[in-house]
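Dear Dr. K.,

Following up on our conversation at the group meeting, I've run the structure prediction for Asparagine synthase from Candidatus Nitrosotenuis uzonensis. I'm pasting the input sequence below exactly as I used it, so you can double-check it against your construct before we proceed with anything downstream. Let me know if the numbering doesn't match what you have in your notebook.
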Amino acid sequence: MVKEKKIGIAFSGGVDSTLVAKVCHDTGYDITLLTVGFAGSHDIVFSKKINKFLQFKHRVLEINPREFTRISKQIRARIKTENLSWNENCIAFYYVAKLARNLGIDTVVTANGIDELFCGYNGYRQAIKEGPQKIMDLMASKLENEIAMMKAVNDVSGEFGVIIVQPLLSDEFIKYAKSIPLSYKITDENDLLRKHIVRKAAILAGVPESSANARKKALQYGSLIHKTLIRSR
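The predicted structure tokens came back this morning:
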């Protein structure tokens, strides 16, 4: 349960963040959608397209290319890991937290956990060929990594006095999500969409189909942070 009523939503326009935004709005939270990325990036363009339907408050921060290398080095030194995914996510949430602070928002809610719990990653297509136990083993590994990574994210966002909250990584939600049959999440190794029950729930909640049925594009790719970080190293 998120106690603050005025919250930001880390928003890309994809099914996960749009569903979280819709649920938070419909349950009485004062939400502002927060999108970060380089100018012209997928997330900036797509989030604006989806919010034309939602009509929520939406703020965008375009990353300054001239400061990116300096910021990325600062973050790598702070989190003390060369793990590329961790660095990319911490950079992205650094900018999300910066945007939130500029708007007077102390709490940002994210959809982290959905891909881990509902077979959103492409790796689950390989795992399903080896059976349900392989999927559950992969899920456990990904959850452990995500929970640890979000602690690093909060260390970075703390520079701005902003808390990044992941309600879908709570013990209660993890237990619930694991009780849902795998067939509701992934069908076989050729399943390019996955997360089927999440997509159906999103449509029922009023998420536009262009978001609910969009293929996954991770934050670091949709924002162009991954591409820019690789070039800067």
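Two things stood out to me. The CA atoms of residues 21 and 224 lie 22 Å apart. The radius of gyration is 17 Å.

Best regards,
J.T.
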